[in-house]
Design brief:
single chain; alpha/beta; Arc Repressor Mutant, subunit A; D-Maltodextrin-Binding Protein, domain 2; 11 strands
Length: 296
C-alpha cells in the first residue's frame, strides 16, 4: 500500500468527502478520487459508500481506518523527528475550540510567532470530540479542548479556567424571568454541532430546567451564535470571557449559573507517545509562561 493513498483515504474518512479532503491536502479533487479508487482496487473492496450528502465508511473502511491513521501519523512524526535539531522550526498543527481561539489564543499565538518565526504554525477550530480524535490520530500535534479528558494515550494540562454563563436576549433580565416566561418546552437551544462540550452541558442544563424537548439550532460561528441570541432566536451557553469581549456584548443578557454548570477547564492535550520535538515543546513552554497573563 502506498502511504499517500492511506493518508488520502484517512483525510476523506475524517472530513466526509472528496472536496474537503482535497482542500486540506492542497490538491485537486481528481487526485483524491484516483488515490481512493487505487486503494480500493488493491484491497479488492469498496471503502466508502457514496451518497448525496457525502461519503461514509463501509465495514472494510472502518477496519482499515485506524491502521491508516497510525501509519500516517507515524510517517509525519518520523519526518519531523529526523529534521528536529533542537531549533524550533517547521510545521506545527494546533487545534482549538472556536471560543478559545477567539478570546484566549490571539495573544499567545502572536507571542509564539514573535519568538519562533521559523515555526509554520497552523490553527484549526473544531469541537472537542473532533479535536481529541485528531490529536489521537496524529493530524494535530496538540489541541485546546474542554475538560475533563481522561484518556490513557493523552496528556493534558490546564490552560485556562472558564466560567460558563447562560446568554439570552436583553429582554430576559433574570434567569427566573426566563424560566417563568417561556412555554413548557423552553427556548431554542443555540449550539455548535454535536461533539461540542458546551452543547452537551447546555442540553444537560435544559433537562435540569425541565426543557428536555426544547428545539435545537446549530450554528458554525461565534458571532453568528451571539447575534442569534441578541435577536431572541434562542439561548446559549458560553464562557463569560467570550461574551464580555464580544462586540455584541451590549445586545445580550448574561446570567451566572450555580454548580455544577458554572466552571470548566480548557485543557491543552498532546499524545503521550508522540515525539516531543522542539516546535511543540516551545509552544507548550510559551503557553505555560503566558497563562497568567492570558487567563487574567
Amino acid at each position: 500500500m502506498e502511504l499517500t493513498d492511506l493518508t488520502t483515504f484517512a483525510a476523506v474518512a475524517r472530513l466526509g468527502g472528496i472536496t474537503r479532503a482535497a482542500e486540506e491536502l492542497n490538491t485537486v479533487q481528481s487526485n483524491v478520487t484516483q488515490r481512493v479508487k487505487a486503494l480500493e482496487a488493491e484491497i479488492g473492496t469498496a471503502l466508502f459508500e457514496r451518497h448525496s450528502r457525502g461519503m461514509t465508511l463501509t465495514g472494510a473502511g472502518r477496519r482499515l481506518l485506524p491502521y491508516a491513521q497510525r501509519m500516517a501519523a507515524l510517517s509525519r512524526e518520523a519526518l519531523l523527528a529526523a529534521r528536529d535539531d533542537g531549533d524550533p522550526k517547521g510545521p506545527l498543527a494546533i487545534g482549538s475550540m472556536e471560543t478559545t481561539a477567539a478570546v484566549r489564543l490571539p495573544v499567545l499565538l502572536a507571542e509564539f510567532h514573535r519568538r519562533f518565526p521559523a515555526v509554520q504554525l497552523t490553527l484549526r477550530t473544531a469541537t472537542t470530540a473532533d479535536l481529541v480524535a485528531s490529536v489521537l490520530d496524529g493530524t494535530l500535534d496538540g489541541a485546546f479542548v474542554a475538560g475533563p479528558i481522561d484518556h490513557a494515550d493523552l496528556s493534558a494540562t490546564v490552560a485556562f479556567h472558564e466560567e460558563l454563563v447562560l446568554v439570552t436576549a436583553r429582554r430576559w433580565k433574570t434567569l427566573e424571568a426566563l424560566r417563568v416566561g417561556m412555554p413548557h418546552t423552553g427556548p431554542t437551544a443555540l449550539a455548535f454541532r454535536i461533539g461540542c462540550t458546551y452543547r452537551q452541558r447546555l442540553e444537560q442544563l435544559f433537562s435540569d430546567f425541565g426543557w428536555p424537548s426544547a428545539a435545537r439550532f446549530e450554528l458554525g460561528t461565534l458571532d453568528g451564535m451571539i447575534g442569534c441570541v441578541a435577536a431572541d432566536m434562542g439561548v446559549t451557553l458560553l464562557p463569560r470571557a467570550v461574551v464580555e469581549r464580544s462586540d455584541l456584548r451590549d445586545t445580550v443578557s448574561i446570567h451566572p449559573l450555580t454548580a455544577p454548570w458554572t466552571n470548566v477547564d480548557t485543557l491543552f492535550i498532546q499524545r503521550r507517545s508522540a515525539h516531543q520535538y522542539s516546535a511543540l515543546t516551545s509552544f507548550a513552554a510559551c503557553l505555560e509562561k503566558s497563562d497568567q497573563t492570558i487567563a487574567a
